[in-house]
Amino acid sequence: MGRLFNKIARKVIKWYEKNHMVLAQNMNEYDTIYTEVNDDIKLISKEVATEGAVLLKNDDNILPIHKDKIVSVFGRCQIDYFDCGYGSGGDVKKPYTINLIDGLINEDVIINTELLDIYKKWREKPNNVVDPGFWGNWPYSHKEMKLSEEVIRNAKDKSDIAIIVIGRAAGEDRENKLKKGSFYLTDIEENNLKLITSIFDNVVVIVNSGNIIDFSFVNKYNFKGLVLAYQGGMESGNALALNLTGKANFSGKLTDTIAKEYSLYPSSSNFGARDYNFYKEDIYVGYRYFNTFKKEDILYPFGYGLSYTNFTIDPVLTSTKGTNVSIELLVKNIGKFSGKEVVELYLKKPSDKLKTPSYELIGYEKTKLLDINESTSLKFDIDIKEFASFDDYGYTGSKNSFVLEKGLYEFYYGNSVSSLKHLYSLKLNEDIVVKETKELFKIDKSFERMTRDNDIIVYEKVDKSNTMLKDRILESIKEPIPLNSNDYKLEDVYNNKISLDEFISSLTIEELDILSRGEGMMNSSLGEPGNAGAFGGISESLRKKGITPVITADGPSGVRVIRNSSLLPIGTMIASTWNKDLVKKLYTEVAKEAYERNIDILLSPGMNIHRDPLCGRNFEYYSEDPFLSGTMAAMAVNGIETHVFSCPKHFFGNNQETNRFQNDSIISLRAIREIYLKNFYYMLKYSNPHSIMTSYNKVNGVWSHYNYDSCVEFLRNEMGYSNNIITDWWMRYANSPEFENCYGNAYRVRSGVNVLMPGSISAINKEHGTSLMDSMNKGGLTIYELQNNARYILKNVLESNSFKRYMKNKDK
Ligand code: BGC
C-alpha cells in the first residue's frame, strides 16, 4: 500500500515539478556525471567524522573493541547507514559511502559473519528493500528486522560484544515527528534492544542520526556503551571504526543538550505550529535553560563527550585589562591513551536588573593530539563586552542597548557545562553601556516570555512596539547618479579606468532591474549542470557590458551539482569536533571542489540555531548556542572563501520546516539580539562572506526577504557588511505595509535584499506588477535604491571567479 502510494505520489510530484518551479530543487532525475574525488578531501572528511562522533557512555571500558574480540552487529543500518540528511543540504551526488560494517571490516574487526549474512539476506527481500522516498517524503528510518531470541542467543554464542545501530534522518521540508520511527524508537527497535541487552553482557548502542532523538532508552535497558555517531558523510564507517577500535580516540562534544524527554525542552510547547510560534523560552534556549532551571532534566549536558583517556585542566595565568581577560590553561593527558580534549569557558553574569542564564559559552579550544603524560597550554583573550546582555525594556535605564551590569562576572572552565570549575571573578563597579541600537524588529503580537526570579521560572509580558520604519527608510534615500548612455564595460572598473558608480550610471533601469534577479530556474544553462542558479550577467545586454554570470551551488554537505562530489559529515557533526582549524581545512577542500566545478558561490554554511530537536534541518546547522554556531560558521566561511564565495544562511530566525514559507517566528528583541542574530554577529566578527542568504520564514510578521531591520540596519549599518544579500530560493509576493506602491521585488530591493534567487524568467519582463519599473512609475522605488542595489551585485561580480576567468580568457 505504502509503495503504491509512493509510486502515485512520485508521478504527481513529477507533474508538479514540471509545472511549478517551487519543487525544481529535486536533482535526482538527472544522471550523475562521474569524476574522481581527490584523496585530500577523503582524508579530511574522515578526520572530521572521527573527531565529531560523541562517546556518551563507556561503562567498564567496553570500548575500544579489543582486536581479539568477535563482534555481532545488529540493526540494518550497519549496511543501510544514514550518511547525511535530506534536501539541498544533503543531496550531494556522492562517489561512495562507507557504511559501518565495511568500516569495521576495513579496520580488521572480527565480525560475526553468520549474523551479517542473516541481515544481508533479509534486506534483499522485495518487502525489505530501502525505499528512498522523494522530496519532502524521504524515510525517517528504515524498516527493521525483528530478531528472535534464537538468533540473538546464537550470536551471543559466537561473539563477545554486540553493537546495535539505530538509524534516523530528517531534512529540508521534512520535519522530525514525535512518532515511532522518527523521534521515538519503533516497537521492533525497542523489542530488539530489550532482547539483545538481556542476552548480551557487552552491548554498545550507536545512534546514527542527524539530530537528537529520544534517548530515554538509556535508562530503560542495561548496556555499557553509547555513541552519538551522527551522519558522517562518505567516510562514515571508516571514521567510526577508527574510534570504536581505539585507532583513534573519541574527542567530539555535544553541541546541544540531550534532555530526558522531548516535553522537557523549553521550546516544545511552542514549536511546529503552522502559522506562528511565540518564542516564549526567550533567551533560555538549550543549556541556558537547563543549566539555569532544570539540571535534573538533563540526560547529557551541552559540551559533554567522553574519551578513552583522562585529562586535567589547570589554570596557569589570568590577567585583566579593563573588560578584557587573558586566560591560560594547562591541559595534561593523565590517562592511558593519546587523545584530544576540548576546553570550554563559560561566563556567569550578574542577574540583577537584567536577568541572565547561569552560564554562557564564551570561548573554547581543542588541544592537539596529546600523548600519555603530555601537556599543552591553551590561551584565551576575552572581552566581556562581547557578551553584554541586551536591555530591551530599559531595566538598566538604557533601553535598546547592550549593557554590562555592574557586579561580578565569574569565569568558569571545564569540559561540559555541567562539570565546571570556578576560574576567576571580575568586578564591575558601574554599569557599562556597550552599544546603543535603534529600536528595530517591530513586535505586532504581544506575548509572555520566560525570565527568572532567582532560580524560579517566571514570565513577563513582551509588548507591541513601533519602530518608525517608514521614516527611517525615507531618510536613507539619497539622490540617484544621473543616468547616461556611455558605452562602458565592467572591465573598465576592474582596470581602474572608471569608478563603479560611473559604470552604474550607464546602466538602464531595465538592466538594473534584471541585475536584481537571478536567471529564473535552478540548473541554469549558464553554469555547471545541476547548479542552483545564476545571477549577474544573465541577459545578452548585461553580458555585452562585460558582466559575467555568477554561478551558485548548494551547499552545506558538499558541492551539490550533477557531477559527483564529496559528501561531508553533517553540520552538527562538524561543529561537534569543536576544532576550528580542522573545520576551516575541511571547507577549504570543499571550496577546491567547488572551484573545479566552476562554481562561484557555495550556498553554505547553514547556521541556524537548534532551537528544538525536531527541526528537520538541524543536521545542517551547528548548535543550540550562538557563539559556537557563529564561530564554526566563521571557520566554514574562511575555508570556503579561500577558493570561492560562501553564503551563510538562513538569515534569520529559521528554526522549523513546518509551513516554512509562511511561518512566523515571534521573538522578543532581547532573544533576537542575544540568540538569533548573535550567531550571525559572531560569524561576521570572524569572517567576511561574499554573500548572505535570507530565510523563508517571517520574524515578527515580516518575511526575511523584506526585513529592512535585519538586512539594512543590522547587517549594513551595525555590522558594516558590504557584500551581497540574496533571497532563499523564490520568495513570497506581498505589499509593503509602509509603502503602498512597493510590491514584491520593489519591496525586497527597498528592504536591502539585493538579488531574488534563483529568479523568475517571466518577472524580468513583467509579472503581475512585480516589475521594479512598475513601482518606480507609481512613485514607489527610486532610481537611487536601484543603483545602490546594483553596487553590491556588481562588486560581487567583479570579485568573482567567473569574472576573473573572463578577464583571463579575454587577454588570450
Ligand atoms: C533552501 C536553501 C538552498 C536553496 C537552493 C532552498 O530551498 O532553503 O538552503 O540553498 O533551496 O537549493
Mean pLDDT: 95
Poorly predicted ranges: 17-23
Structural class: alpha/beta
The strand line-up of the biggest sheet is 1-6-5-4-2-3
Termini separation (Å)? 62 Å
DSSP strand content: 15-25%
Largest sheet: 6 strands, mixed
Gyration radius, in Å = 27 Å
> Number of helical runs?
24
Helix content: 25-40%
Indicate the overall shape.
globular
Tell how many strands the DSSP assignment holds. 30
Give the ligands present: beta-D-glucopyranose
What is the oligomeric state here?
single chain
Q: How would you characterize this protein structure?
A:
By secondary structure, this protein is α/β, with parallel strands linked by helices. Helix content is 29%, strand content 19%. It contains 24 helices and 30 strands. A 6-stranded mixed sheet has the order 1-6-5-4-2-3, with helices on both faces. It has a 4-stranded mixed sheet with strand order 8-26-28-29, with no helix packed on it. Strands 13-12-17-18 form a 4-stranded antiparallel sheet, with no helix packed on it. Strand 10 (311-321) and strand 11 form a beta hairpin. Helix 16 packs parallel to helix 18. The radius of gyration is 27 Å and the shape is globular. Bound molecules: beta-D-glucopyranose. Residues 25, 88, 532, 554-555, 603, 649, 728-729 line the site of beta-D-glucopyranose (BGC).
